[in-house]
Amino acid sequence: PPPLRDAAVEAGFESVWIRPVTVASSTDVQAVLVVWSRLQGLPSPNQEDHLREAVSIASLAFGKVLLMDRLTHAAEHDPLTGLANRSKLHSGMAEDEPEEISVIYMDLDGFKSVNDRLGHDAGDEVLIAVAERISSTLRQHDDVARVGGDEFVAVLRRLPSPDIAATVAERIAMAVSHPINVRDTQICVEVSMGVAHGRTGDDFAELVRSADLAMLDSKKARRRSIQEPENRR
User: Fold this and answer.
1) Are strands 151-157 and 143-146 parallel, antiparallel or unpaired?
2) Per-residue model confidence (pLDDT) at position 99
């Protein structure tokens, strides 16, 4: 940029040598090495060797950072849906400032029949679609995790009133219930939900358990299942 160029000239620099830094596991440029020189022209062979060495060291450093980030992400997220896992959800609650929250525990009714009829690959497609629909329904500062085979937990924050959690749950149920196209078959998924209210400073595991028990009561009452659209009642 002209202001930077003018400042460099005023400081006595005549050249700038720029080298991209990449890592072996990625084709993306992770950083840029910028060296200002008081000499005009290109670097000498010896200076070029130093630049290559600096780039190599930076590449190793960024590669280590990327690897650690990937390992951390893999340990904290569900590999199928990309959502946080149970461990990540619980650890996140322990680190948060105290605030009112609502927990929604969700379970897909009759999901086993999808695996039985269409296979586990089809079941995975359904789970991915459900995860995307739940995530799209929530706000940016809410959390959602996959905590079991077909079980999800959402944590709602900054609600004006705990009563609004029931409205959010209904929106989730509506979003999830739309047909999912799986191998030329439309699958409709129904979800049982339970809601519990508390604070991030409370025993989060107990709060999740309360929402889970409420979900089980809802499941027993509703007896919903996964069906073909034309067979839905």
Assistant:
1) antiparallel
2) 86
190 conformational bin, left if phi > 0, alpha if psi -120 to 50, beta if neither? beta
Residue of 143, 150, 163, 203 with catalytic role: 150
pLDDT at 170: 94
Q: Which residues pair with 37 in a beta bridge?
A: 15
Opening angle at CA 147, ends 85 and 214, nearest 5:
140
Q: What is the pLDDT of residue 96?
A: 67
**How much is the pLDDT for 229?**
39
Q: In this predicted structure, what is the pLDDT of residue 223?
A: 57
Q: 157 pairs with which residues across the strands?
A: 101
Which residues neighbour 201 within 8 Å (Cβ) at sequence distance 6 or greater? Answer: 98
pLDDT at 133: 96
**pLDDT for residue 110:** 77
Contacts within 8 Å (CB) and 24+ apart, 90-95: 90/204, 90/205, 92/143, 93/155, 93/200, 93/204, 94/204
Distance CA 172, CA 64 (A): 39
How many Å apart are CA 181 and CA 185, to the nearest integer? Answer: 6
The CA-to-CA distance between both ends of the chain, in Å, stands at 65
The residue ranges of the chain whose pLDDT is under 70 are 94-96, 222-233
CA distance 17 to 35: 5
Can 203 be counted among the known catalytic residues? no
